[in-house]
Structure formats: structure tokens, C-alpha cells
Specification:
Blueprint lengths: L3 H10 L41 H15 L1
Helix pairs in contact: 1-2
């Protein structure tokens, strides 16, 4: 399973990332930190799985990009 930091990086690079919306978003505390993460994507299941099966694909792509930079 990916770490929380990996979930954040995946969401940044995932073309299918779709942030969950809260029906009460106008009532949310403005001081809360909002960030992209798989954990707040509509495709992320309660079983901590991407229903589009993109986590490994995006992580692999990020890993290859890092290899090219080194």
C-alpha cells in the first residue's frame, strides 16, 4: 500500500484525480488545509483502493521520471 506522501504525489500527477466534494463545503472551517490526495478522490474506495487501478501505474511513472533525472 502507498504511503500518505505517495497518495499526495499520485493525486498531483494522476490525470483522473477528481476531488470529493462536501455538500456542506460552505460550512467548512476555512483554516482546514486542503490538498490533493488519493484519499480525497472520488475513485478511492473505503477499502483504500483506486477503483480505476491507477495507483501502481502512476507510482511506476513517477519512479521512471526520477530515474531519468538522476
Amino acid at each position: 500500500m502507498a504511503s500518505l506522501e505517495q497518495f499526495r504525489k499520485i493525486a498531483i500527477y494522476c490525470e483522473r484525480y477528481n476531488k470529493k466534494t462536501d455538500d456542506n463545503s460552505s460550512l467548512k472551517n476555512n483554516s482546514s488545509v486542503e490538498y490533493e490526495s488519493c484519499t480525497n478522490c472520488t475513485h478511492f474506495t473505503t477499502g483504500k483502493y483506486c477503483e480505476l487501478d491507477l495507483i501502481d501505474k502512476v507510482l511506476s511513472s513517477l519512479s521512471m521520471e526520477q530515474d531519468l533525472k538522476s
